[in-house]
Amino acid sequence: MVIQRALPTTNAKLAEACGPQVPGRQVRVVLGTEAIEAGTRVTEQRYIVDGDKVCAVPLSEADVKQSEASLNEVKAQAEKRDGAALRRGAGERRSSGRTSG
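and the corresponding structure tokens:
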């Protein structure tokens, strides 16, 4: 999954890695998955996009922790939604008996 949006400002750390703020700068976040022994792990990569120039942004420990917390929140919401959908689907199957007249 790729999420991309405008990045109106650039902090000093980011400017050091990818250059000063330029008009039209965007941030791109790429979420992916990779197989691990215990199942699947979600990965995140961040990039600064200045036209056709793309700069990879290294994630700090704080970024990684914040990212993991956000992904866990999304996972919990998805599981809650999936569980509700499964319960609704089971109810529809039970109540979908046909009658003929």
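(Above: one complete record from the training split.) The mean pLDDT is 84.
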